[in-house]
């Protein structure tokens, strides 16, 4: 008896996995290994073989698909080099645009963090284009070229392997942004393009990928904060076409449509080419018409679910007698259409790169390769085991033991018991009394009992918060079986003489569409032919008849939800597709669906995150198919992290699919139920409580003239020696920028160092796109030389070299010099001006809307409904301050800074950061003022993200408030920290009076450029 692995999650979803479970002959052993799980080209399968005494002997069986456990050397070697390049965060060798994006995605203090698996996939693609073969790194493209020649007729393909639910669409958005923004910045750089073709296997994914269109209101670039604000404008240059591979089929010319087949054959004669079909070139023009332009720019192709796209290998003489079944023949034909379409695009438009994304980039059975053979052009791998150990997906739980007399675990190998007893064809007459085979009926009841527990939790804890119910999915082999199973689960109509005389309830109470003899107005269970819906070819007549009652019910629901809509113009296919695509989505047509009975298999790309139970009633001859079907239930419901920064495990119970990643003969520990979700939003009728604020990218220094000086008294000593240099030298070597020979003992002249520091200060503090000040450079060089002479100490054996070779050291030195300059006091003072975001210069509380599982407190003086409290059990300090803000008579309105978009840019250690303070407060106006006064409040202590606290506070008060107050267009702002909850009331009252009195709370008065006594100057 093996011990159950109670918590499979070992790693943070946002960091590189550094621990993994060892996989032995019996699956994961429970032994934790340090380091990164190697990429291996197999899918572990748990095959339970019960012994005579009923004990389990679990082994990993790879013989069923011809797979062997082999390391993927290309992926593992490339992964190590990408990790070395990533380390330190400087991303050497890439363009400035690429570096800014990479660092933006990797920032640990983001509200909406990018998962590590998403970063790694994007980083690998970027590394191959911009770094590989240069800067001392291996040219991995030379390893890919022979594979593409052999397998893809020379098409330039790379594959990114990412487990279902890990966010492949986000990666596509990241790569589109990377390519487009670089092309805008450097139009002649042939490595980049702004034209993209997204190819999908079906309509569902095609529609879902609309989030990649920048003009879409819910696009991923904004939703996931993938682009720094100052670069967003460049994304408008992207040209994106989204299609499914069916569009590669050559269409009939308009002239031949409606012509009889024999007439068409007569017109064609003996010619091989069909003159009445469009040419491949015309097809490419049709597919790419949304990309516009002259076509001189090559396109980048993204193949989503790319395992459907391959060039099948001709069967050998020994394999000629091998007969492919209809499904395998169809898969090969689909692959040919897709692959040949890409060849036509390459021929007539030009393809810069094909990027394949798939959880299972393996050859299918019948392709001419061993089933499960990984595409040899795969360059990165974040496997399902990686995703489970990082908590990114649900853990699939399958049966591993039972007390049946035979050796197989019944509900794991369900098809072995019932497959030959299920009908293959539709019956001639209506089936009224079908009963499932005992093993199938037992599986249905068993899963329903498990589902009942999940449903009861939903009723008691989640329903009141508007959460959709859990979802049970059933995958069937054909429309006949699906209809029988559907009616057994959901109920059926009793028809006599073509009239409905009664309604029979289903056998699973929570999933029945008939209650108390009457059909429900909103069906709980739906029947879906996902293959027909995906192809767009329409539903078969008998399927429409089987789902007629449900279609009618959804038409009525559609009318209710969308008054005035012409539902008659909506086809049954469109309606059912909308229902299927919105299962588990709040406020949508499929929101309350509890069960989906699907023909063949649910389409890839179907992404309901509420699936808790899966039943497979079909043959699963490949582990690729197992993973594809199980993947439909692996998306998490909750993405809230616990105290350790990890996700809590979630589970999906799976029957009938011989697939397991963490096998055990003990029941897994029940997951913690997800916490209720609270909707936090801006409330109607509270417009008077609205708070507006500026959005800054940084600060610009204005000087009355070029007479600037260094105040040595405020400049600290800068030490170069063993306490600082060794770690940075090592870091520099890790990221590769300093992969110079350490034996090089170059001596840098003091003037050379002063020039480098002066240039850095000039570029970072003075020069902007519309305001260049080159005349300041000589003075800055003089200041930097003075600083080097008087404030730099060098230990024996060290030199000024780190200030030239180590970016971090140079940045810190420039910060110290700048700090001494801006603190110069005299008649000629520097004035700070805000650098407003050009595309989004102002935010407000008006559009706040999000869901949270954190503790919340309702508000009265805020346009936003709740204050969200940070911390696992809430934050009593924040709650106490919110209470004081509600009671203080001078406070007109306030808001907790959560999902508000308000941040304070600051620089620390040479890197740009964003500081997100806790509260914004608007004060009541005195009668003689025509502008508003605002207070930024930081609650220090309790659970705070790590960071340079002093730098944040100093920037907030002496840079942000100063610059905004100097602008005069956003009212007057002040900043205060609350550090003692016993003094909150008094400290708040004091801060408010200081702000009313224009005291230094609004920023260093020596840096402000208006008369403190002129309180009416500047409006809000």
From TrEMBL:
Its EC number is 3.1.21.5. GO terms for cellular component: cytosol. It comes from Nocardiopsis metallicus. GO terms for molecular function: ATP binding; DNA binding; type III site-specific deoxyribonuclease activity. This is Type III restriction enzyme. Coiled coil: none annotated. It comes from the Bacteria. Keywords: Hydrolase. The lineage of its organism: Bacteria, Bacillati, Actinomycetota, Actinomycetes, Streptosporangiales. The keyword Signal does not apply. Residues 153-361 form the Helicase/UvrB N-terminal domain. It is an enzyme of class 3 (hydrolase). Residues 1-37 are annotated as: Disordered.
């Amino acid at each position: 008896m093996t011990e159950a692995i109670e918590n499979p999650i070992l790693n943070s979803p946002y960091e590189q996995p550094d621990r993994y479970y060892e996989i032995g002959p019996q699956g994961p052993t429970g032994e934790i290994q340090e380091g990164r799980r190697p990429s291996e080209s197999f899918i572990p399968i748990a095959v339970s073989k019960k012994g005579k005494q009923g004990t389990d002997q679990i082994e990993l069986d790879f013989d069923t698909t011809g797979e062997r456990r082999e390391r993927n050397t290309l992926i593992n070697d490339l992964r190590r080099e990408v990790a070395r390049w990533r380390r330190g965060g400087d991303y050497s060798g890439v363009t400035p645009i690429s570096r800014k994006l990479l660092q933006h995605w990797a920032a640990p203090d983001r509200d909406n963090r990018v998962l590590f698996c998403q970063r790694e996939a994007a980083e690998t693609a970027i590394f191959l284009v911009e770094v590989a073969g240069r800067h001392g790194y291996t040219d991995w493209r030379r390893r890919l070229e022979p594979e593409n020649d052999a397998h893809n007729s020379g098409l330039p393909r790379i594959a990114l392997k990412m487990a279902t639910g890990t966010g492949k669409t986000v990666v596509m958005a990241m790569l589109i942004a990377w390519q487009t923004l670089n092309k805008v910045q450097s139009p002649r750089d042939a490595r980049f393009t702004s034209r993209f073709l997204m190819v999908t296997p079906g309509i569902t994914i095609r529609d879902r990928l609309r989030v990649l269109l920048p003009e879409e209101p819910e696009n991923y670039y904004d939703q996931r904060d993938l682009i720094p604000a100052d670069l967003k404008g460049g994304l408008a240059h992207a040209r994106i076409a989204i299609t499914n591979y069916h569009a590669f089929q050559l269409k009939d010319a308009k002239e031949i449509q409606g012509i009889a087949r024999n007439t068409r054959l007569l017109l064609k004669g003996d010619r091989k080419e069909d003159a009445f079909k469009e040419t491949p070139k015309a097809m490419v023009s049709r597919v790419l018409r949304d990309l516009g332009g002259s076509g001189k720019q090559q396109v980048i192709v993204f193949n989503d679910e790319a395992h459907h796209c391959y060039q099948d290998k001709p069967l050998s003489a020994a394999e000629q007698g091998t007969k492919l079944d209809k499904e395998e023949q169809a898969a090969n034909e689909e692959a040919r259409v897709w692959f040949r379409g890409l060849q036509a695009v390459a021929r007539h438009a030009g393809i810069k790169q094909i990027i394949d994304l798939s959880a299972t980039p393996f050859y299918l059975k019948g392709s001419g390769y061993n089933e499960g053979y990984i595409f040899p052009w795969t360059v990165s791998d974040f496997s399902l085991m990686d995703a489970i150990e990082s908590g990114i997906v649900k853990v699939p739980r399958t049966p591993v033991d039972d007390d049946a007399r035979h050796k197989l675990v019944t509900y794991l190998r369900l098809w072995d018991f019932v497959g030959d007893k299920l009908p293959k064809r539709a019956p001639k007459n209506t089936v009224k009394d079908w009963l499932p085979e005992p093993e199938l009926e037992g599986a249905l009841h068993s899963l329903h009992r498990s589902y009942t527990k999940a449903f009861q939790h939903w009723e008691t804890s989640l329903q009141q918060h508007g959460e959709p119910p859990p979802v049970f999915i059933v995958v069937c082999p054909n429309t006949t079986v699906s209809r029988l199973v559907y009616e057994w689960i959901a109920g059926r109509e009793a028809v006599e003489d073509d009239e409905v005389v009664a309604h029979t309830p289903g056998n699973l109470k929570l999933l029945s569409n008939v209650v108390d003899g009457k059909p429900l107005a909103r069906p709980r269970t739906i029947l879906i032919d996902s293959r027909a819906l995906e192809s767009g070819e329409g539903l078969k007549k008998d399927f429409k008849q089987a789902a007629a009652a449900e279609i009618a019910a959804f038409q009525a629901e559609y009318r209710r939800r969308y008054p005035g809509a012409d539902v008659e113009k909506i086809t049954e296919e469109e309606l059912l597709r909308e229902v299927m695509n919105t299962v588990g989505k709040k406020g949508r047509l499929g929101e309350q669906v509890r069960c989906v009975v699907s023909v063949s298999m649910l389409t890839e790309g179907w992404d309901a995150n509420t699936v808790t139970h899966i039943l497979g009633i079909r043959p699963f001859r490949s582990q690729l198919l197992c993973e594809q079907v199980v993947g439909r239930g692996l998306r998490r419901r909750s993405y809230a992290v616990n105290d350790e920064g990890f996700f809590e495990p979630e589970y999906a119970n799976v029957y009938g699919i011989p697939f397991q990643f963490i096998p055990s003969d003990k029941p897994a520990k029940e997951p913690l139920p997800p916490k209720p979700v609270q909707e936090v939003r801006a409330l109607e009728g509270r417009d008077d409580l609205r708070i507006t604020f500026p959005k800054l990218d940084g600060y610009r220094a204005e000087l009355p003239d070029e007479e600037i000086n260094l105040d040595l008294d405020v400049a600290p000593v800068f030490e170069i020696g063993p306490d600082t240099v060794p770690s940075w030298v090592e870091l520099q070597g890790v990221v590769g920028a300093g992969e110079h020979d350490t034996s090089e003992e170059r001596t840098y002249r003091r003037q050379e160092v002063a020039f480098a520091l002066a240039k850095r200060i000039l570029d970072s503090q003075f020069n902007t796109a519309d305001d260049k000040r080159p005349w300041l450079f000589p003075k800055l060089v003089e200041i930097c030389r003075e600083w080097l002479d008087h404030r730099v100490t060098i230990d024996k054996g060290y030199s000024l070299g780190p200030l030239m070779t180590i970016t971090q050291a140079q940045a810190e030195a420039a910060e110290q010099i700048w700090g001494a300059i801006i603190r110069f006091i005299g008649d000629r003072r520097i004035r700070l001006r805000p650098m407003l975001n050009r595309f989004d210069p102002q935010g407000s509380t008006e559009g706040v809307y999000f869901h949270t599982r954190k503790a919340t407190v309702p508000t009265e003086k805020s346009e936003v409904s709740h204050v969200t409290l940070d911390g696992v059990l809430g934050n009593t300090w924040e709650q106490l301050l919110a209470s004081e803000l509600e009671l203080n008579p001078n406070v007109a309105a306030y808001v907790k800074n959560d999902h508000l978009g308000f941040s304070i840019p600051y620089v620390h250690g040479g890197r740009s950061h964003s500081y997100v303070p806790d509260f914004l407060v608007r004060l009541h106006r005195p009668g003689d003022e025509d502008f508003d006064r605002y207070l930024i409040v930081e609650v220090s202590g309790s659970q705070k993200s790590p960071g340079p606290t002093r730098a944040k506070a100093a920037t907030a008060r002496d840079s942000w408030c100063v610059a905004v107050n100097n602008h005069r267009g956003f009212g007057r702002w002040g900043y205060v920290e609350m550090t003692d909850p016993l003094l909150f009331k008094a400290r708040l009252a004091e801060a408010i009076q200081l702000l009313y009195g224009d005291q230094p709370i609004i920023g260093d008065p020596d840096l402000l450029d208006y008369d403190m006594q002129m309180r009416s100057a500047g409006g809000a």
